[in-house]
Amino acid sequence: xxxxxxxxxxxxxxxxxxxxxxxxxxxxxxxxxxxxxxxxxxxxxxxxxxxxxxxxxxxxxxxxxxxxxxxxxxxxxxxxxxxxxxxxxxxxxxxxxxxxxxxxxxxxxxxxxxxxxxxxxxxxxxxxxxxxxxxxxxxxxxxxxxxxxxxxxxxxxxxxxxxxxxxxxxxxxxxxxxxxxxxxxxxxxxxxxxxxxxxxxxxxxxxxxxxxxxxxxxxxxxxxxxxxxxxxxxxxxxxx
Length: 240
Fold this sequence. Notes:
Layout: E1 9-11, H1 17-28, E2 33-37, H2 42-50, E3 53-56, H3 62-75, E4 81-84, H4 98-124, E5 132-137, H5 141-144, H6 150-170, E6 174-181, H7 192-199, H8 210-222, E7 230-233
Parallel strand pairs: 1-2, 1-4, 2-3, 4-5, 5-6, 6-7
Helix pairs in contact: 1-8, 3-4, 4-6
């Protein structure tokens, strides 16, 4: 008998930052990867050259989400995991209708994972006990709220709750967990004053970089028992 091919890991929003680092991490382990991207960055071509299947997707409409799911199903007959990394950080601001802000945050953080988990569950199931994973990226503000990003925080809180619901629905074949980060890495344009202010908000006083999240995802994929949980990667910020 021939060797059974590895099922790919699907990562949404993998053109930048943590999603991009995670995709390269898996590719370096010879793990097949499918990524979604909205904008054609140079990094996407880099992922293609490294062997990733890169699919352009528009998650701003339900039709776009479902079209992406159909493309994934035509690309692979099984998935090892779905990592819901696609995200947007939109504040309430003058000139933008509040309903538009709320709709945009719910679309990317609730509609997309909700519809994709349902549409792709048959690709995750049927491979054995705890053989597949779904990982949602939420945010540490799920616990404390945010006065400047109310819609964002609410949408991430909904995603946090969906973690437990999908864990109940898909056990024991699929484990479903959430990662709730705060500061992981800075943007290049962040100035020294901003960086110091941000570092002072946590107990650990560092921006740990993508490896902290990658190591946690490696653990969750390896576990045969952990499901329905949220893992704070926040340097103790809620305690500070």
